Amino acid sequence: MKNLKNIFYLFFLLVTFISKGQISAEHLRCEMTENPLAVNTNQPRLSWQLVSQKSNVSQTAYQILIASSEEKLKKNEADFWNSGKVVSNKNLQITYNGTPLKTESKYFWKVKVWNQKEKSSNWSKTASFRIAPSALNPTWIGAITKADSHLPEGRNYHTATFKREKKDALINASDSLSRRSIMLRKPFSVNKEIKEAVVYISGLGHYELIINGKKIGNSDFAPLWTDYDKTVNFNTYQLSANQLKKGENVIGVLLGNGMYNTLAERYSKFYVSFGPPTLFFKMKVIYKDGSEDIIKSDESWKYSKSPITYNSIFGGEDYNANLEQKGWNEKGFNDSAWKKVIVQEAPKGVLRPQITTPITIQKQYEVKKAKELKPNFFVFNMGQNLSGFTTIKVKGKKGQTVRVWVGESLNEDGTVSQGKTGKPYYYDYTLKGEGVEEWQPKFSYYGFQYVQIENINYKETNNENLPTLVDLKSNFIYNSAGEAGTFESSNDIFNKTHLLINNAIKSNFQSVFTDCPQREKLGWLEEIHLNGPGLLFNYNLESFIPATMQNISDSQRDNGLIPTIVPEYVVFGGDFTDSPEWGVTGVILPWMYYEYYGDASLIEKYYPVMKRYVDYLGTKATNHIVSHGLGDWYDYGTHPAGYSKNSPIALSATSHYFYGASLLAKASKLLNKTEDIAKYEKLTSDIKNAFNKEFFNPETKQYGTSSQFSNAVPVFMDIVEPQYKQAVMQNLLNDIKAKGDRLTTGDVGNRYLFQALARNGENETMYKMNNHYDAPGYGFQIKFGLTTLTEQWDPRKGNSWNHFMMGQIEEWFYQSLAGIVPDDQNPGFKHFFIQPEIVGDMTFVKATYKSIYGNIASAWEKKDGKLILRVEIPANTSATIKLPIEKNSEIKVNGKLTKDLKLGCGKYTIECKL
Known about the structure:
By secondary structure, the protein is of the alpha+beta class. A hairpin with a 2-residue loop joins strand 12 and strand 13 (about 215).
């Protein structure tokens, strides 16, 4: 009888599971982030993904519960918000509508959903979010005041134009303590049982936080870079119970310069200083009895110089292990020799929670090949060009120094080259002479594949008078946002190109998207929008793009100008400060975000930024023609790379003025800004007419200089009048053919050329243009043996070997070859198209994309005269399949004949004859 009861109970559970298991709510997010610790709004937006093994599943209703404790939520006691059952298919960006939330408080939430058959899911797993403090009232502390530091003020120190004497004068005028890494410590006591402890910290330029001898968090180069006169990021950490002890505890913080203070010896692209290294810290400890303690940065802290004797984001880092003070960040340490901190002038910027993901060590590489050029002089090939730093393990005598040079390439004599990437850059480590010592830098990184170390033994100690390198690794650092897409095909060039581009993207995916990880490390804006779809398909940018838009907003000038680099740490002047193809990123990026994530909040928040920039371009226009800027930068030809040579700069500038105005008109319509709709629709039309009058020759049907850029841009941007479009396209194709199926566009024009072809049925031309091993082309770089995309098509001519600006083909890989195409009428991939292109001799393509709704997959292969397409469509979305076949061809979906190719969620195999 007992066994029968057990069987009945198990059967009941199974039935419940099956009925409830039709759909589940997973991957809960608040403000696009999982369990955020510092939400900077009192009306956060909540999202989740629907997961189901069934096909054609959609959400028809949801219910959200939010409580002040996990215990209450378990009992379904929603003391802050019970939404009740809301009839809606929406599962993204649901705005909180409950009892007012309290700052510095944590909330717990869960959701359940109903499917189209009115079956409810189980409650989701519990998620949480914490509301950021409204005012932190920071006290900033360090070793020296800004006034006593005598650091250079302003942003006009482009050191590439300076003589050595001028650099030395600026360095010598400053106090060396203002550039020194310091350690700060603060003991405190805990005498009660802790409920929770939360840390808010900003250490500028960068910091490492240690409590009781253990590092808190896993980030490097925190906080992320900003314009410190406008925004200063702080980080939030929630401590676990075992990170604090009863009795004495010790907070330790290590500070470095970062981009906050770049004045230093050795190489530097520019000097900018917002002040000497500085710390803000606040920890709130809440005890189980309801009482609380606040430990914050104030004059009671002490500091000492750290063993890091030199640190520069551009020049490297030195460490003297003999200056270590064992146990400095633990209890029981005697800090009587330490000095009292100075209360410093606060940075000018608003203190804001860092809303996006940190930089971390993502991969490590071992030595691929070691070569001894001469006795005790070694060069190591690490096998991968990357952004990062080395980890060394050495043994030797106290006081011996190991100097580590790093670089992307080698000189003819086999030594490491830094001639084109900024020199000198190196790391010095001075041994303490205690067995095997391990060290890696904390506050500097560089782009490199090769490592050079002189005056050492390697592995075995052959010379007792030299230190021995026991082990060497390279650390690949980049933003921890995570990867969203995968791409693979039957074409070896395309597969290797995908890796080449993405290794370059990762190398430049730091606090901002940089141009290169060595020479400049600057956030040149154009590469973001020109590579935008590729970036969005490959990486999770839900929180990174909002942070980028904050930086753009901070950098916008009073007259509306958005500079070419953001943050604008150095003012280059002229076209290198003001170029429309770069500045228009501030208008395009919110739209791309909306298209891929279905979230219009950036358009709404930054509408004034978009408007002011378009209006600014209007002040620079004459009869709607804008004539300044860099144009199609690095366009290809026999001329030296740089300013556009093949195409008129005015054509490029005016087309981007049009592009910005047209998107602003769309934004005004979306936001129902009635006064602006008519104004900017008219402006768009006026610019279009002026552009065609100025640059179009109705007799030859050519634009500008008849270059590929000149004709591709008006086709892509829909500036060309419909009756001339086919002729302009034919002229474009004729030029490509005349150039041997090779491109002549540059950094700006590549995307427009690629997409003018792709979107107008010329994918075979795209295939021919890119399926070869010549320059210009990705194949040439593969043949050259590179592991990252370079600044120029021929790497022997360019400076940087780690640039992603020419990586615009990623959009074609995902949208054309794999055919995953967003629907602008249903943003965020609520509905999308799968419309693969079968080109050349390719036999298969497969790609995946983690959309905001869930996983999308498209994989096709040609087999036995058939096209077999396997697709995956996430729950609560739909897709329309478009196949490159004759109209009346027989199509089977999961083995059944059909003509309806609009599909709900699920996994499908689609077959048809080719």
